[in-house]
Amino acid sequence: MSGFNVQGLTKRFGATTVVDDLDLSVEDGEFVVLLGPSGCGKTTTLRCLAGLERPEGGHISFGDRTVFDSGRHVDIATHKRNIGMVFQSYALWPHLTVRKNIGYPLKVRGRKDALRGGAVERAAEMVDTQALLDRYPAQLSGGQQQRVAVARGLVAEPDLVLFDEPLSNLDARLRDQVRTQIHQLHQRLRFSAVFVTHDQSEAFALGDRLAIMKAGRLEQLDTPQRVFDEPASEYVAAFIGMGNRLELTRGEAGWRTESGEVVDLADRTPERGAGDRAVARLRKQDLHLLRSSDQAPAHHVVLGATLVTTEFGGRHYDVLVDVGGQQLSLEADTREHGAWLREAAEGAPVLVGFAPSDVRLFAPDLDEKPQTGLALTGAEARTGGTHTVASGV
Ligand SMILES: Nc1ncnc2c1ncn2[C@@H]1O[C@H](COP(=O)(O)OP(=O)(O)OP(=O)(O)O)[C@@H](O)[C@H]1O
């Protein structure tokens, strides 16, 4: 197995540039996840690696073998790139048994030795499908079909395994099972992999590194922990779960919300750029709901708010509040807040608190309006009772 290197990869469809001068290096045995919203170019990048799309420019090498180079007119055919692929749609041959489906990559590579030597049975065993070898795909469940597709992707010990949203068609329980199985297989076999998804929890669970794409370019390439702790831009922050957005303006007394409440962030400045406007991003798990009469935790920023909606979620309530015209979502523990929240009416005054260290502050970028489906603008501004602000950050 070997890693790969991509330089200046550019792919256009007509006048639209879908992959834009992309550089990406993956170490031998590394599992890299391409993460981003629909249409940002993830699948096209993967298809260029596989040789299923011909890029307009760039260089791709697997280990020290060049498989594509626009300048030198090198373009190695897909079946000669020694890759394994696992697709969202499973893409099994319906007229072939599981045994023949798994063995297919060995057959097209002329690897009769491996076919006779038990490679198919070993691959089937890796994903618990050895009992299904004589069945046809139509006789399998979705989860079983995808496990067979994973076995087929790995059977020929390819240089690189490409996964294109392989879990998207599975229901939630199976998705977790197959995800764990792929993770365990990678821990054991250490194949190099690129895995495309738009699901941040899949990306965090599987990736050694995450490559977050925006409009055909890499916005951030880093470990899951670093992406989680230090998103490189508001776009990344929004995409990895920091769905709450609070627009701030700096005055003499520091940062303020649009309705004028002080947000004491000590001397924090936006991660990129300077200026008197900033956008605070926060995870819903980092926002605390308080009654107007509650004592705020020490060193927390506390803002006046009104209740918008409350939905029962079992252990917690999903709560939407309005802070001076900006809506924030949070989770309120049912045992702690259930008694009063059940009775609270829409529009009731509440408080919202958060630790300044949980805030990520970005320079505003009009390109980077919410990705999260939250209606954050245009909400009716309601006054939020007494505005308490904790200090001493
Ligand atoms: N064969 C094609 N011809 C024209 N446009 C295409 C073609 N394939 C993809 N596109 C366009 O290129 C853009 C990127 O598509 P791509 O499938 O790479 O995105 P993606 O990030 O994988 O999205 P998704 O998660 O929805 O699959 C999209 O706007 C898509 O419509």
Automatic annotation (TrEMBL):
PROSITE patterns: ABC_TRANSPORTER_1, ABC_TRANSPORTER_2. The keyword Cell membrane applies. SUPFAM superfamilies: MOP-like, P-loop containing nucleoside triphosphate hydrolases. Pfam families: ABC_tran. Coiled coil: none annotated. The keyword Cell membrane applies. InterPro entries: AAA+_ATPase (IPR003593), ABC_transporter-like_ATP-bd (IPR003439), ABC_transporter-like_CS (IPR017871), ABC_transpr_FbpC (IPR015853), ABC_transpr_MalK/UgpC-like (IPR047641), Mo/tungstate-bd_C_term_dom (IPR008995), P-loop_NTPase (IPR027417). Residues 4-240 form the ABC transporter domain. One of its GO terms (molecular function) is ATP binding. Keywords: ATP-binding, Cell membrane, Membrane, Nucleotide-binding, Transport. Gene3D superfamilies: P-loop containing nucleotide triphosphate hydrolases. It comes from the Bacteria. This is ABC transporter ATP-binding protein.
